[in-house]
Each structure stands twice: as structure tokens, then as C-alpha cells.
Write a structure and sequence with these properties.
- The chain is mainly beta.
- The protein is 14% helix and 40% strand.
- The chain contains one helix and seven strands; from the N terminus they run E-E-E-E-H-E-E-E.
- Strands 1, 2, 3, 4, 5, 6 and 7 form a seven-stranded mixed sheet that branches.
- The two termini are 17 Å apart.
């Protein structure tokens, strides 16, 4: 489990650089996921995530087709992405998931650019239920 002080993973503007094919973390995807709540996201990457002293996790990076300032909406979108990718993780669930929204679609992530990230950590408890980090209500 990740430390309780990390309730919310928020990464502010950072500089990034990509190849002409949009490769920063490997080739970025452009698949659009339609979520149960009516929102859509561009799923850009599925990445292993490592936190020292914790079992491996997994990060899903996506563009939510909207500004990142509405954090209530971003949380609903993170739940939607979690429900959509559930079948990928249920067989061999990682210890935690990072749902990272980014402010740029893959098409704009070429060359040098500034990117803003907003993320949520969802961890799997010993009873097998998934929770936003530090919260008691289960997502699944």
C-alpha cells in the first residue's frame, strides 16, 4: 500500500519531449474508450508503476477531452476508466492503479511540449476490494 499522505497524486506542469511518433513512455495510443457514465477518454498508455517498498502497480494514462480543472468530474472519469479496464486487471490484479489524466491528446504530444497531469491512486486492499487511496468506500 502506498503511504497515506499520498491521498491524491497530483503532478503539475512539467516539460516533456517526444519523438515524432509521440513516444515518451513508448508509443502512445489513440484508442477512444467510451465510459459507462457517457464520458470518453483517449487511452494513451498502460504502464508498470513502481513505488519503493510496495508491490508493482499499473498506470493508465488518458486524455479526458476536457480541461483538468474540474476535479469532481475527473474523479468520475477515473472511476469510469477503472470500470472499463477492470477485465484487464481482475485476473492478476496489481497492488495499486494510478489513473492519470493528461491535458494533451496524443496528436499534440510531439517534439517539446508542456503537459499537466492529474491523477488518482486506487489501491487493492487485503480483502480484494478496490478503494481510492485513504478512503473507506469500495469502488469494486
Amino acid at each position: 500500500m502506498i503511504g497515506k499522505h499520498s491521498r491524491l497524486l497530483v503532478l503539475l506542469a512539467t516539460a516533456a519531449c517526444a519523438t515524432p511518433q509521440g513516444e515518451v513512455f513508448g508509443r502512445l495510443g489513440t484508442d477512444t474508450l467510451r465510459l459507462f457514465n457517457g464520458d470518453s477518454v483517449e487511452l494513451q498508455a498502460r504502464l508498470p508503476t513502481v513505488v519503493e517498498g510496495s508491490p508493482p502497480g499499473r498506470m493508465y494514462m488518458y486524455y479526458p477531452f476536457r480541461d483538468l480543472s474540474d476535479t469532481v468530474r475527473l474523479r468520475r472519469i477515473a472511476v469510469g476508466v477503472f470500470m472499463k479496464i477492470w477485465s484487464e486487471v481482475e485476473g492478476q490484479p496489481p497492488a495499486f492503479l494510478v489513473m492519470r489524466a493528461v491535458n494533451l491528446p496524443t496528436a499534440q504530444r510531439k517534439g517539446r511540449y508542456n503537459i499537466v497531469n492529474y491523477g488518482f491512486v486506487i489501491d487493492r486492499r487485503p480483502d480484494g476490494h478496490w478503494h481510492f487511496l485513504g478512503e473507506s468506500e469500495a469502488l469494486r
